[in-house]
Write a structure and sequence with these properties.
The complex is a heterodimer of chains A (275) and B (125). Chain A is built from five helices and seven strands. Chain A has helices at residues 17-71, 80-110, 123-141, 160-176, 239-249; strands at residues 119-121, 144-148, 156-158, 183-192, 197-205, 254-258, 264-271. In chain A, the strands form two sheets. Chain A has a five-stranded mixed sheet. Chain A has a two-stranded antiparallel ribbon with strand order 1-3. The two termini of chain A are 41 Å apart. The radius of gyration of chain B is 13 Å and the shape is globular. The chains are: A alpha+beta (275), B alpha/beta (125). The A-B interface holds A 54, 57-66, 68-69, 72, 74-75, 97, 115, 117 and B 13, 15-16, 18-20, 22-23, 26-27, 85-86, 88-89, 106-107, 109-111.
Chain lengths: 275, 125
């Protein structure tokens, strides 16, 4: 821990003004040095996290590839039970890989290594793609997943991969926190503010909801409102932190409207022209 | 008898190159593996390579250096494909500029990699 040293001579009214100024300047310099040290240490940690998560992918690649070789019958035909078991290894491996990928994205964000690569694209395509990816998860949970994005919605200029990432994280969460029989939806439309036009995207659900006092907390890293060991919702706890980072990287804003037991509505904006 | 296509796996992690060896040997290819730039250049310049699967992080440096060295030796593989854990646009652009046929993000599903490899090898016959 760093602590600012107390001045060896107390600053009093009787101290000559130029001496006081010099002492304050010295303290200020010290404070700046400490901030720089802390920032450097934070940078080292973020870099470490980025490196380690990158390195974790390599052995995982080997595990998944070997399992796929077996699954695909390249080394001989498997019985249905063997196939089921191999699929378990592959699915577990891919899930772990996804989580490692999230940590990597988070660490790159923390180390300021994320850049936006803009292109023009149809948001409805990306929404359809992300909904399709989450359809089986939703139906397994008994949750209805719907999207309402006008087919003639103007194209957006943004980093397509990162917008897909944001949507994936919000949608995954919405499904995860919505009990069977509930609904999850995605909508998008252009809205005009005083200063600019922007695309407003909503991911909503009829799930458990979030108390107003926790609205800021959910965007913090490693946070889940219920952090008890028995919590039914798993993940890295980075999904919303990453989503916020990626939205802000685009110059947009992300927020939620929710109350306990009232479902949640997450909104984010993509400025009309950001680049 | 037609010679089996020669696949060279340049990869510093033996677990990964071992998996690639099983995948390609069992499906009618001849496989060499190399963990370093030096070894990859040595193998490729002495035994013509049909398909090079190139990891970007080799034990002794940037995997793409292999391609510039093989170009200088006039011993480029018929097809070079980069396999990488990083999909940043600048990485992809650098691989393309160095002559990579494709840039694939690891792990590429085994079936998918095999399908693409067969296509590339058939197209260049």
């Amino acid at each position: 821990m760093h602590r600012l040293d107390a001045p060896s001579t107390p600053l009093t009214q009787s101290t000559a003004p130029d001496v006081r100024v010099a002492m304050l300047e010295a303290q200020l310099r010290q404070a700046h040095e400490h901030i720089a040290e802390l920032e450097a240490s934070d940078g080292v940690k973020a870099q470490f996290l980025a490196n380690i998560s990158h390195d974790l992918r390599t052995p995982l690649t080997a595990v998944i590839t070997h399992a796929e070789i077996l699954r695909d019958g390249i080394l001989g035909t498997l019985s249905p039970r063997q196939l089921e078991s191999i699929n378990g290894i592959i699915n577990g491996g891919r899930q772990l890989l996804g989580q490692v990928g999230e940590i990597l994205t988070y660490a790159r964000g923390a180390a300021d290594q994320l850049t936006v690569v803009p292109s023009q694209f149809d948001l409805s395509d990306v929404v359809a793609q992300i909904c399709a990816l989450n359809e089986s998860l939703a139906s397994r949970k008994g949750v209805t997943l719907v999207s309402d994005v006008p087919a003639d919605l103007e194209r957006v200029t943004a980093d397509r991969q990162k917008i897909a990432h944001i949507l994936g994280n919000l949608l995954g969460n919405a499904i995860d926190f919505t009990p069977a029989g509930g609904r999850v939806w995605v909508t998008a439309r252009f809205v005009a503010t005083d200063v600019e036009r922007q695309c407003l995207v909503e991911v909503g659900d009829t799930g458990i909801g979030i108390d107003a006092e926790h609205h800021e907390l959910v965007f913090r890293e490693f946070a889940q409102v219920d952090s008890s060991a028995s919590r039914p919702h798993h993940g890295t706890g980075l999904g919303l932190t990453i989503a916020r980072r990626l939205v802000e990287l685009h110059g947009g804003r992300i927020w939620l409207e929710s109350g306990l037991g009232e479902g949640s509505r997450f909104f984010f904006t993509i400025p009309y022209v950001t680049f | 008898m037609t010679a089996l296509p020669h696949v060279l796996v340049a990869e510093d992690n033996e677990l990964v190159s071992g998996a690639m060896r099983v995948l390609f040997e069992e499906t009618g290819h001849r496989v060499s593996t190399a963990p370093s730039i030096e070894e990859t250049v040595r193998v490729a310049s002495s035994d013509a390579v049909d398909l090079l699967l190139l990891d970007l992080g080799l034990v002794d440096g940037d995997g793409l250096e292999v391609l510039s060295r093989l170009r200088a030796l006039d011993a480029l593989p018929r097809i070079a494909v980069a396999l990488t854990g990083r999909d940043e646009p600048e990485v992809v652009a650098r691989c393309r500029a160095m002559g990579c046929h494709a840039v694939l993000l690891k792990p590429v599903p085994a079936r998918e990699l095999l399908r693409m490899a067969r296509e590339w090898l058939a197209a260049r016959d």
